[in-house]
Amino acid sequence: MKKKLLLVSVLSGLAISGAASAATSQVTMKLEGSIIPATCNININGGTSSTLSLGKISAAQLKPGQMFELEDKAIRLNINCPSPTMVGFQVMDLGQKAGQVDMNGTKGPSLFSLGTTKSGAIAGGYVVHLEKGTIDAQNVYNFISSETGETWQVSNGTLNSVKKDIISWGATSTLSPSIGLSHQIDMSVHSYINPIAEKDISDKIDLRGEATYDLVYL
């Protein structure tokens, strides 16, 4: 019996000793946070959406086998930031058969959709071209494009319809975006109607195009 008591006593002593050695003698404090880009607002023609009217085109105006071109439309993109920020944008065509649009039989990445005929043919399309711009009332020196946002080249001024390129601009001749509070970009939209087959010309054709302009922080 004494041996059992002695064993319990020894084990208890070891347990107390282990607890003492595991006592906390240090605590850790961590600080976490993040610095996020200033939030900018983007608008097109003064709003979050803008509808450009192409009017009503009489089928009598269309000549067999010939493309019909419409009057250019002007749009203005404004990006306003609370602090000087480098920004750009990407465009994405949301029209019918986007990415498959042709101009009189020739396809290209700069062609946006204006919808299809009843038979599924591409009714027409449009091209968006950069015209001029300002950064804080200072004229844009050149428009630049990049696939990654890391290296830049001078843009040819025609927008890609499949969100491939980031478009930005600089107030100097260097190939890099410029920071600013107020960015204003003027663009033109050139629309056209493809030659319409006789089987489609007897039906009403609705010309509908839609594209998004996504703000990109650089």
TrEMBL record:
InterPro entries: Adhesion_dom_fimbrial_sf (IPR036937), Adhesion_dom_sf (IPR008966), DUF1120 (IPR010546). GO terms for biological process: cell adhesion. Residues 1-22 form the signal peptide. SUPFAM superfamilies: Bacterial adhesins. One of its GO terms (cellular component) is pilus. Transmembrane segments: none annotated. Keywords: Signal. This is DUF1120 domain-containing protein. It comes from Pantoea coffeiphila.
